[in-house]
Write a structure and sequence with these properties.
Layout: H1 10-20, H2 28-39, E1 43-45, E2 53-60, E3 63-69, H3 83-97, H4 101-108, H5 112-115, H6 120-128
Antiparallel strand pairs: 1-2, 2-3
């Protein structure tokens, strides 16, 4: 899997997860995330919702690589991703891996939800273009 990492403090990461779960940054939930990261050895489920399971992916330059996900992603309904979402993923793949629009499209099409709503040509055009405008 291709990826990209960001160097954040534990508090910044906890605030991002709090915001993704529609909770206030710096609140109790963010504090529980920060405490869990300090003790994370492999995987810890903090709750039943999206982004409430922390997983230690490894280490890079002595810094732990941590992600947040759902405890059972296969239980979530599949949805075709939006143009904006795919554009941001494509931008990250281009910036971090130097991939062409064709490589980005091929990679994105390995995901069943992407294949359900997008063609290779559409994804190449999307990856080569500007940030799509959000529809009302």
């Amino acid at each position: 899997m291709a990826g990209r990492s960001y160097l954040l403090t534990v508090e910044q990461f906890a605030d991002v997860i709090a915001q993704e779960t529609r909770r206030p940054p710096g609140g109790e939930f963010a504090d529980s995330i920060a405490a869990a990261i300090d003790e994370l050895a492999d995987r810890q489920v903090l709750g039943p919702d999206r982004y409430e399971t922390l997983t230690l992916l490894g280490e890079q330059d002595g810094v732990p690589l941590v992600t947040a996900t759902h405890a059972d992603p296969s239980s979530l309904p599949s949805a075709v991703p939006s143009a904006t979402y795919l554009w941001w993923i494509g931008t990250g793949l281009r910036e971090s891996h130097g991939w062409s629009s064709e490589q980005i499209a091929a990679y994105l099409l390995t995901a069943p939800a992407v294949r359900a709503g997008w063609t290779a040509d559409e994804l190449v055009t999307l990856a080569a273009g500007e940030l799509p405008t959000l529809r009302p």
